[in-house]
Specification:
homodimer; alpha/beta; Rossmann fold; about 30% strand; about 240 residues; seven-stranded mixed beta sheet; about 30% helix
Chain lengths: ~240, ~240
C-alpha cells in the first residue's frame, strides 16, 4: 500500500498553507542544500520524483533545463502544479515512484526532495533511479536524517520543566523500518534507514557517491524562524549526491 | 601537540589489562567489522596506522600479507608489539601519524583502527593516506561514530531513577572539534567530525567510497558482554572503506 497523505484534505490544507507562507524548513534548510548540490541545470533532462506543486520543476526550466518530468502520487499536488507551475518544458504525471514507468526515457539529473522516507522499498527506488540515469547522470536526494527517524517515539527534543531543550533523544538506530508520526494528521508513516543503508545501496547499484550534505539554515532562515538554530544541535535532513 | 595517552602509565596499565581480557568493544564490535571490510590480505603490502601492540599486524601476516608496517605514537605500544607480535614480515615504527614519513613506499591496504578520532587534522591524514596508497589500494578505518562524539558532555546515556537507559543524548552535532573525556584518566581529547566531513574529505582527495559499516556486536559478544545489546540503540563506531 503506497502512502498518499497529500490527498487527505485536512493534511493538504495545512500543508499548503504552511508551504505558501514561505517560512519552512524546506525554504531555509533543505531546498538551499539540494540546489547547492546541483552542478548545472543547463541543457539537462530532469526527473523530479515527488514534485509536489512543481516549484522545483519550474526553477529548473527557469535555470536552463531542457525538459523536466515531475511525478507525484497526489492528485492534489499535480492539479496545483498544472495550475501554478505549468510550463511547456514540464510534464507533470500523477503516479507513485514505485509505479513509475517511463519507456525509452533517460535523464541527466534525477532529484527527489523529501520523498524517500515515505517509501518502503528503498532498494527498489535506487535500482529504478539507476536504470533511468544517463551515463554520468546525477541523482540528488534529500531525506529525513537517520538521527531524526531512528527513535520510535519520534518525539525527540527532551525539555526541562521550563521548556528549555536539553538534548535530542536518539534510540533504536539499528531497527530499520516504519515510524509512525502525527504531522497534521495521525498515522503518517516514515521509514527509518541507517546511514550505511542509505549509502551502501547506492554503491551496490553501481553509483558513485559524490557528496553528503547535512544542511544548516541559511542566514535568512535564522532571522525568520529562530528555532532553526537547533539545526546546529542535530541535522533534520541529509542530502546525498551520487553519479552513474 | 600530538596526543599520546598510551604513554601515561596509569592509562596504559588499565588499557592493556582491559585488552588482555579479550572482552572489549574492539573484540566483539570494531575488529570484526574492520576484518569483514577487507576483501583480501593475500600478497598485500599493508600499513597499519596506530598499530598498538601489533595484534592486527600479526593477523595480517598470518593471513597472507607480504609485508606490514605498523606505526604507533606510543613507545609502550611499540615495545609490547616488538615483544609479543614480532615477525620478520612486520616493521614496527614509533612515530605519530602526523609525523610519518615513508620514502618511496606505497601500500595496497592502509588500516587505521580507532585512531582517527585522536587526531586534530583529519584532512591532513586523508591527504597522506591517499599519497601512500597504490592505484586501486584501499583505506579502511574505524572511528567513534559522530553520534557518540557529538555532544560536548560526552556522557550520553540518559537513565531513569532505577538506572534504566531511557535514550541516548545527542547535541552539538555541527560543532566539530575537541571533546574532552575521562577514560581511565582525565583530559582524553577526541575530535568530533560530522558524517559529511568524514566522507566528503575522502571524496575531495580523489578516493572512491566503497562501503560504510555501523557495526553491531557479533553473537559471542552479546553473551560475554550483555551491554553490547545497546549497540542496536546507537552505534559506537563507524567503519569506512574507500579506494584510490
Amino acid at each position: 500500500m503506497k502512502q498518499n497523505i497529500y490527498d487527505n484534505d485536512i493534511f493538504f490544507k495545512s500543508y499548503t498553507s504552511l508551504r505558501d507562507s514561505g517560512i519552512t524548513y524546506n525554504d531555509f534548510v533543505e531546498q538551499p542544500a539540494i540546489k547547492s548540490a546541483i552542478s548545472s541545470l543547463n541543457g539537462k533532462n530532469i526527473l523530479d520524483l515527488g514534485c509536489g506543486t512543481g516549484e522545483f520543476a519550474k526553477y529548473c526550466v527557469e535555470n536552463g533545463a531542457t525538459k523536466v518530468v515531475g511525478i507525484d502520487i497526489s492528485k492534489n499536488m499535480i492539479e496545483h502544479a498544472n495550475k501554478e507551475n505549468k510550463h511547456e518544458k514540464i510534464d507533470y504525471i500523477c503516479t507513485s515512484i514505485e509505479d513509475l514507468e517511463l519507456q525509452n526515457q533517460k535523464f541527466d539529473l534525477i532529484i527527489s526532495s523529501l520523498a524517500v522516507h515515505y517509501i518502503a522499498d528503498y532498494s527498489a527506488i535506487i535500482e529504478k533511479v539507476t536504470s533511468l540515469l544517463n551515463k554520468n547522470g546525477e541523482y540528488i536526494f534529500s531525506t529525513e536524517h537517520p538521527i531524526v527517524t531512528a527513535r520510535k517515539e519520534m518525539n525527540n527534543w527532551i525539555d526541562d520543566k521550563e521548556g528549555n531543550r536539553l538534548h535530542w533523544a536518539l534510540d533504536n538506530y539499528q531497527e530499520e523500518g516504519e515510524r509512525e508520526q502525527h504531522w497534521y494528521i495521525d498515522g503518517v508513516i516514515k521509514y527509518h534507514r541507517t546511514i550505511s543503508t542509505l549509502i551502501n545501496t547506492l554503491i551496490n547499484n553501481g553509483l558513485v557517491l559524490e557528496k553528503i550534505i547535512e544542511p544548516q539554515s541559511i542566514p535568512t532562515g535564522l532571522e525568520k524562524m529562530p528555532k532553526l538554530i537547533n539545526e546546529q544541535r542535530r541535522p533534520s535532513f541529509i542530502v546525498i549526491k551520487a553519479k552513474k
